[in-house]
Design a protein that fits this description.
95 residues, mainly alpha, 63% helix
C-alpha cells in the first residue's frame, strides 16, 4: 500500500475528515488531499506529526516497515496480556 492509501486508511479508520486532520498538523485540507492522491510528499516534520497522531512509525507510513503496530504502553500488564492473546488467536485463525 502506498503512502497516500495508508494515510487515507488511517484517517478514515480514525473517523477524521481531511479538514480535521489538516487542522491537527497545521496544513490545509487540500494538502491532505494532495497527499492522499500522491500529488505531494509530506515533509519530515509532517511525517512525524502524522505518526504521532495515528500512533504508527514513520517507517510504516513510508512503506519501509510492513508491520502495523498498536501502542499498548498505557495499558496494565493484565490488559497487555489480553491484547497479546487476542492477536495470537486471530493469527491462528489465519493459518
Amino acid at each position: 500500500m502506498d503512502f497516500g492509501s495508508k494515510l487515507k486508511y488511517l484517517r478514515t479508520s480514525s473517523g477524521m475528515t481531511q479538514k480535521q486532520l489538516a487542522e491537527r498538523i497545521g496544513v490545509t485540507k487540500s494538502v491532505i488531499s494532495f497527499y492522499e492522491l500522491r500529488e505531494r510528499t509530506p515533509s519530515p516534520d509532517v511525517l512525524i506529526k502524522l505518526s504521532d497522531i495515528f500512533r504508527v512509525s514513520t517507517d510504516y507510513l513510508l512503506g519501509i516497515e510492513r508491520n502495523d503496530s498498536v501502542d499498548i504502553s498505557e495499558l496494565t500488564e493484565k490488559e497487555k496480556n489480553i491484547v497479546r492473546a487476542l492477536v495470537a488467536a486471530l493469527k491462528d485463525n489465519h493459518n
